[in-house]
Amino acid sequence: MGNSQSDQEQEQEQEQEELSHYYQRKPRNRRKPRSRSNNPQRQHNGRHTSTIQYEPTGANFSISRQQNTHSSNRIQQNTQPSTTSTIVIPPTFQSSSYNSSQYQVDLESLEPVTQNGIHRANNYVIPAADKKERKDHWNILPCQIGQRNKGLRICPQYNGHGCVTEPCRRLHVCFYWAKNTCRKKFCNCDHSFDSMHNRKLIDTLLMWQEVMLDDSLGKTFILEELQICVFSVLGKCSRTHCSRIHSTKNYLWQVKSNNVWIEMSCKQSDYLELMYSHPSEEQVDLIPIQTDIGNSTNLQRLADLLSKETSWSVDLETFKLNGTSSMHEIRRLSTVSDLTSRVHVATRWVWYWQDDDGCWEPYLEGVHKKCYHVALSDQLEYILRADNNKFVTIHINEHSYSINGEEMTQTNKTTGRTRRVRRRPAYTLLCKTSVKFDDLFLTQPTEKKYLKLPLVPLSSEFIFVEGLLEQTLAGLKIASIHRIQNDHLWKVYQNKKRFLISLNDGDTTTINEQYLFHGTSHEAVNHICAENFDWRLYGTNVGHLYGQGTYFTNLAKLAYTYGKRNKTGKKVMLVVLVLVGKTTVGQANMSFPPTNASTGRRYDTTCDKETNASIFVKYDRDEYYPAYVVKYSCAS
């Protein structure tokens, strides 16, 4: 239901209040000021609290401004004065009525419906992301006795265009509802803590029977001339001489040439932002600039610069644009951190550490100065960037770590082992609508055989691929999904598809195009992406019971058994587009399919059984295309 005129005015007023706080201007106060307590402790801490009190049913609530000495005493060691709110948990959230078994039941209700094991390509249309709540596969270690509770932040992106981070360790509720200031008749944000996301966060803190809202704001040390104006991103900057950089997005990539900063093209900037948001990406190839640059002076300068080399690569750690014989500085500009501003277009940063296999894991929950943080990544951003500290010591499980915010390292204080740490922004250009697989292709560098592009966890494409695997693979936890773009293989595959359709008088249903799975080793992935599967290697991994070709399955759980683990237990699986066509049961001695008596041509595919087949064998490498690489682990 659309917002009424009063809702739009309310939204504009609330947005203006957020921006006023950001620019340290006094916000407009359209409500009668509330009386302040003269309590000396409150004045010393610079705090006030809002207690949300629920009726026994947990359905109704009232908000009252009051002093909470228990809350104040528990957090008075914080270095930054802040505004906090205390939320009293309703009985329905407490341990007596809300337990892990009930939570598991809720999760099971979100399982996708199995569609007889057939995953139609559907003209490569990836459906829009389902609006129902996603399962959170990340476990949370609860706050322990003796540890103070730092509190939970409200997600500003959720209050804007939607959360952009997974896992998100912030509450998904209306910020103004929590502050008792939301006056919208129809609000798009939740006015309750009933979602599974919020319940899971609150459940970690239930031993206190209340949850503190962390509403503190840090400082920013970014020079104004290197900041993107949040008003410009919102399209509302009215300053005559704005000291900040204007952009339609909350990020901007530039390259330096002859002491002049030149903006990357829109597609290049989006591409670099996508790659930079994934901590595993360090060296990436720069995609070519579009040929039609119009009358843009900036794009003309960029084209002149890039024309000096046949190919360019970007070092996302040193921020260098490297050619064969030249090098240029690059930089990424952004809005301020969302821990220094509550505006939803502020940049959200995520901190990661590198595991034994070289994979990057986000910091989840931990302890800092005997204070439990369910969102440890936020705390690292607050301490090492907003407060500009160099070191911080944290405790995760029984281990203590020292993190160096300048050298970006994590050192185990007991063993002395050092790991790498990275800080990357959350990607904000989430596509949650329906898209076509081949419409997502970029301009591929001519000297590269393929591009491997990471998917954003909350995008419709990620959710779609995840759903394909979840239909038969229980306990799935995906580490990463990459889309494969190989222009040569795609062209060959499409040519063969058109040829097969022509053989059947234009009947597109006869090609029976499906998404199938193939489990393999991590070492084989790059060769498959570049050259496709090699049918001549039949039997090296699975035998050749149904024919001497390349084997695929429509059961992810079956492909799982043929995948090989790396050091950290993760497996890899390819999701492949396959022209299944007409099938017949295969035999071990078949080097190609037998003849189909009804058509006079050979069958397209051999399989394990006449009906409800689960194993498919292909003999022509131009009849399948590796679409996605999935790195994952499985509890089962």
Describe the model.
The chain is of the alpha+beta class and 636 residues long. Strands 8-7-12-11-10-9 form a six-stranded antiparallel sheet. It has a six-stranded antiparallel sheet with strand order 14-13-20-19-18-17, sandwiched between helices. A five-stranded antiparallel sheet has the order 22-23-30-26-24, sandwiched between helices. It is globular and about 75 Å long. The longest helix has 18 residues, at 5-22. The relative contact order is 0.10. Helices cover 21% and strands 24% of the residues. The protein is built from 14 helices and 30 strands.
Beta-strand proportion: 15-25%
Based on DSSP secondary structure assignment, what is the total number of beta strands?
Answer: 30
Radius of gyration: 27 Å
Distance linking N and C termini:
42 Å
Secondary-structure class: alpha+beta
Q: How are the strands of the biggest sheet laid out side by side?
A: 8-7-12-11-10-9
Query: What is the average per-residue confidence, as pLDDT, rounded to a whole number?
Result: 80
- Report the major sheet: 6 strands, antiparallel
**Coarse shape:** globular
Count of individual helical segments: 14
Low-confidence stretches: 22-84, 89-114
Residues in helix, %: 10-25%
